[in-house]
Design a protein that fits this description.
This protein is α+β, with helices and mostly antiparallel strands. It folds into 3 domains: 40 residues, no CATH class; 79 residues, no CATH class; 131 residues, Gcn5-related N-acetyltransferase (GNAT) (Aminopeptidase, 3-Layer(aba) Sandwich). The chain is 22% helix and 34% strand. It contains 6 helices and 14 strands. Strand 5 and strand 6 form a beta hairpin.
Length: 271
């Protein structure tokens, strides 16, 4: 996989041209040198990509209103997402996170490198994922009737995500962005929504289907609808999927996603 340079959006002119996102997709995985293309900045591999720290960058920008913590350690409210992040891997940052979580506190952190936790921390479980970024030219079509979900659907959303063992989804998660679903006879049978969001990027999250309704293309339609929503904002969709979920990875590849790199979500506990 080629990943010598990444495209990150910079401050755009008023009413930016709609082709900006297309340019980003075309060069996202290219070997082009640093520079400007239209109103987009190409950032070399040697510089930290926003995608390497999705939790931190979301809590520091679009999701700052949800952030609990300070300038070196932040987390989502526990009823929104069981996730936290530190500014760096320093002992000071982990001390701040420890104060935020309290004695015996548990949270999930993301790592693109091997975790190197300071003394006093235990990794309870590692969740290996791949991070995939949409690199298509035209958003895929939606083949099913899709509905907007809201707080009135939260109980059935929780039931569906629990059935699919999506532990990250919490009652307050729909506050983070748009959620879409497919109903059959008034029962929610498939859903997907928006997770982390920071300048230029929005994550597609909580993609799941009731076991009795799999194989009908509902997940494809839901992800396609979200791709359309996100790209209309001149943002790039990305997502995370377990490395063992080869069927989902193949589906996302068919929809235009390309693997960027591996990323681990570690459930950690303060001793």
């Amino acid at each position: 996989m080629e990943k010598d340079s990444y495209a990150l959006p910079i401050l755009r002119r008023p009413n930016p041209p709609r082709y900006c996102t297309t340019i980003i997709r075309d060069i996202l995985f290219s070997h082009r040198s640093l520079g400007l293309v239209g109103s987009c900045l190409i950032v070399g591999e040697g510089q930290l990509s926003l995608l390497d720290s999705p939790v931190w960058n979301a809590l520091s920008t679009f999701h700052a209103s949800f952030a609990e913590g300070n300038e070196i350690a932040k987390r989502y409210p526990v009823d929104v997402a069981p996730l936290a992040a530190t500014h760096d891997q320093s002992a000071e940052s982990y001390q701040s996170l420890a104060r935020l979580l309290g004695p015996g506190g548990v949270t999930a952190l993301s790592f693109v490198t091997e975790p190197n936790l300071p003394p006093g921390w235990t990794i309870v479980r590692m969740l290996p994922n791949v991070q995939m970024v949409w690199n298509g030219l035209v958003p895929p079509s939606v083949e099913h009737r899709i509905e907007d979900l809201n707080i009135s659907h939260i109980d059935e959303m929780l039931a569906l995500t629990e059935l699919n063992k999506l532990g990250r989804f919490r009652r307050g998660a729909p506050q983070l962005g748009s959620y879409l679903g497919v109903h059959d006879s008034s029962h929610l049978v498939a859903m997907a929504g928006e997770g982390f969001r920071f300048p230029g990027y929005t994550e597609i999250s909580a993609v799941c289907t009731h076991p009795d309704y799999r194989g009908r293309g509902y997940a494809s339609s839901l992800v396609s609808a979200l791709i359309q929503k996100i790209t209309k904002r001149d943002e790039i969709p990305f997502l995370h999927v377990g490395t063992e979920n080869v069927d989902a990875i193949r589906l996302y590849e068919k929809l235009g996603f390309k693997t960027r790199h591996n990323i681990n979500f570690a459930i950690v506990k303060r001793d």
